[in-house]
Amino acid sequence: TAPATSQARMVSIFHVARSASGEPALMCTAQSGGTWTTVPMVQGVESFQVLYGVDNVTPGAAPGGTTNSVPDQYLRADQLDVAADPVATNGNWRRVRTLRIGMVLRGPPNSVQGSAETGRVYYPLGRLLSSPADTGSAFTPSADSRLRQVVSFTVNLRNDQSMQ
Question: What is the pTM of this model?
Answer without folding.
Answer: 0.86
